[in-house]
Amino acid sequence: MSFAVANKRLLKEYKELIRESPEGICAGPLDEDNLLEWECLIRGPDGTPFEGGVFPATLSFPKDYPLNPPKMKFTCEMFHPNIYKDGAVCISILHSPGDDPNQYEDASERWSPIQSVEKILISVMSMLAEPNDESGANVDASKIWREDRKEYERRVRACTRKILGL
Amino acid sequence: MAESTATDPTDWDGTNLPFISSLDAALRCEVCKEFYTAPVMTNCCHTFCSICIRRAFNNDGKCPACRTNGQEYQLRRNTIVQDLLDAFLGCRDKLFHFATKEQDSIFRDERESTPSNPQPSSQSQRPRRRAAAAAAAVKLSDDEKEDLQPVEPAPPPDDGLVACPVCSRRMKVDAINAHVNKCLDNPVPAPSAAPASNPALVTPAVRQLRSTRTATRSGPLFERLPKLTYSMLKDKQLRQKLRELGISDAGSRKLLEERHTEWITIWNANADATYPKSKKEMLDALNSWERAHTRPANNKTKLADWSDDNWAAKNSDDFSSLIEKARANAKRQKIEKVEMEPDSFRKETASAPVPRLSASWTETAIGPSSQPPISAQPNIRNAGMSFSPQPTPSIDAHIDHHPHAQPSVLPTESLMGAQPNGGRPLLRTQPSVTMSLQYHSNLPHVPSMYSPPSQEHRTHAPSQSQPQSRQLSSSAYSSASTVPVTVNINDKRKYESVE
């Protein structure tokens, strides 16, 4: 039942995203038989060193979605204070209110069943533009971001170019 | 609300009524994004489907919308939302039809329908029209007219009749006076009397709904089940409780607790429903929950790869037709075999062309769409064995086996010749021989015509003992024999020497 609920809800969100997805975001299931695994593409926000890049990521939904949030992981190399080296995204909207790994998040920012894929992706897009240096999933990136913004931008641009195959 | 599953608030975008979208969205639960099913309100005044909010509370005890702490016992049925939903769903299709028509055709329809269709089609419109007709036909006192104020005066149907102001029955002008006198003396309840209150406020459908709702809202189905403190219960007591509820008491302690929680959720949500389900439907819901719940998490999508079940399902027709053909062949050849002399049969099978034989072997194992084997019987039996919907390692073995078993199709010899005793061919040949043997040993034992030649060969014996299989594998060996001697090839040589 709960599994059927997850599938139904994901199908609905998918339909809505097909119909009108926010600018710079594209997402859908990898396989129509398994709606719990999605792939998404996020465009780098304008005016940031990520500008011009298109970043692929996967979303893995739990069986009890939407009670619990999905996990998001970039499948390309990302240099960002809130993205682990393996691509996993650390953002408050993806943490359920119960677990707070870093003890800094406001419960109101965290996952709730009324959030959606669209809202996650918009949050991630704004996270690319404005990193949260308190979380520090990637310590090197956090440090460079805080201390040497020019170097940070250079390294992010290098990543972006790499994704574009330049 | 099965019909609502395919709908969406964005359906209204781009129609003539885009503003309906917000109404449509407002009548949907924010958790499941469907129209409300048994809407209930939390103590923080948010409305959700009963089952959605109960699940959310079970999960973290917080309102999904505002994260206020909440508990199930605080939920209250939100009947006005249900009424709004019923009213909206009652006209959604018609509205949508209207909204998606072209502007021109709407006006054309209206113009066409007004004169030619004096009888109003919709039931909710009828009392209005009657009242209007009554008001227009007979000029009545002012206080009565006030009652009918919101109703626009519609022209009475042009049928030469007048309506009785009391019962609004239509009749000839000559008869009306006598009728009104009779009607006032002895008010006959007309089939549909002019409604006293504004009919637009409470439609008959809603009134009927409310009355049935209050009438049916009793009985055991609507008694909410209490939650249990599982830590206070021993396994035996918990099982007893589940049996009392009429649900399965099998499984581990954890599963028992989860099943009980889910059943309580389904049951209590149903108690909130305006259109409750039967106990059987609830049990079905519980079963489908359990099936999904106990299934191991299969979160791995094999991208561009293999989906076992999918593939098996997609090709099940091929499988069954192949099996049919193979069986038919087997039957036919059994008959032929009986007719033939045993000696000639052996001769014929022994001299059967190896490449063709092995080709059919490999084809049946790899591709279900290929032709069924048209060869001797033992081969078919092997092929039949490999029709397992689950891909087994044997398929890989066959793919590797292929080049050696089929020297005429794939240039194995030339490959071997080009790089004798080294590099790639060596690496390819050795494992594949072993693998083909493994495959053979996986086959069920078939009564052998030849006894195994040596003790150490016995492991491969069952299928080797088939004439065809022997031919097949010896061809594999002959191509493999250009490589350094392996244990298997030693076996093979012994085998040959015994022969």
Detailed description of the structure:
The complex is a heterodimer of chains A (166) and B (499). By secondary structure, chain A is of the alpha+beta class. Chain A has a single domain (2-163), classed as Ubiquitin Conjugating Enzyme. Chain A has four helices and four strands. In chain A, β1 and β2 form a beta hairpin. In chain A, α3 packs across α4. Chain A is globular. The mean pLDDT of chain A is 85. Chain B is mainly α and 499 residues long. Chain B folds into four domains: 2-108, Herpes Virus-1; 125-202, no CATH class; 220-293, no CATH class; 310-498, no CATH class. Helices cover 55% and strands 2% of the residues of chain B. Chain B contains 22 helices and five strands. Chain B has helices at residues 20-26, 50-60, 79-100, 103-116, 126-137, 142-147, 173-185, 204-216, 235-245, 253-271, 279-294, 308-314, 316-339, 342-350, 354-366, 377-385, 393-405, 412-418, 423-442, 461-464, 467-480, 487-498, and strands at 39-41, 47-49, 76-77, 162-163, 170-171. In chain B, strands 2-1-3 form a three-stranded antiparallel sheet, sandwiched between helices. In chain B, strands 4-5 form a two-stranded antiparallel sheet. Chain B is extended. Chains A and B meet through α1 and β2 of A and α2 and α11 of B.
